[in-house]
């Protein structure tokens, strides 16, 4: 069973930075895409950033130029570096991994880590 464990969330002032980590129980290269989603109160969960197995990245328009998704294959860990944080970035951030199966794509989720940005 795949496990994704996020860490690195916390309380930060606007303009500050945080670095989220997502440690996977297996090889992250076994997933054809991994990413970070966030869910703020009263809002739907949204994609923040994603990285394919080949290293291609995709970002939500609201975080482009501020957030960077990276990974350490040897440590089976995905990262999200968040700079110039804004109060609107406050949310629970979830790590996601997608794997192909004979039944179609299957998503794995972490438990989430809270990010709170004060103004």
Question: How does this model look, in words?
Answer:
0% of the residues lie in helices and 56% in strands. With 119 residues, the protein is mostly beta strands. The strands form 2 sheets. Strands 2, 4, 5, 6, 9, 10 and 11 form a 7-stranded mixed beta sheet that branches. It has a 4-stranded antiparallel beta sheet with strand order 1-3-8-7, with no helix packed on it. The mean pLDDT is 96.
The coarse silhouette is: globular
Give the helix proportion (percent range). Answer: under 10%
Mind telling me the C-alpha Rg? 14 Å
Query: How much of the sequence is in beta strands?
Result: over 45%
Give the termini distance in whole angstroms: 40 Å
Query: Largest sheet at a glance?
Result: 7 strands, mixed
Mean pLDDT: 96
Low-confidence stretches: none
Order of helices and strands: EEEEEEEEEEE
**How many helices does DSSP assign?**
0
Class inferred from helices and paired strands: mainly beta
Quick gist of this model?
Helix content is 0%, strand content 56%. It has no helices and eleven strands.
Topology (elements, then pairings):
Elements: E1 4-7, E2 10-13, E3 18-24, E4 33-39, E5 46-52, E6 57-59, E7 67-72, E8 77-82, E9 91-101, E10 104-109, E11 113-118
Parallel strand pairs: 2-11
Antiparallel strand pairs: 1-3, 3-8, 4-5, 4-9, 5-6, 7-8, 9-10, 9-11
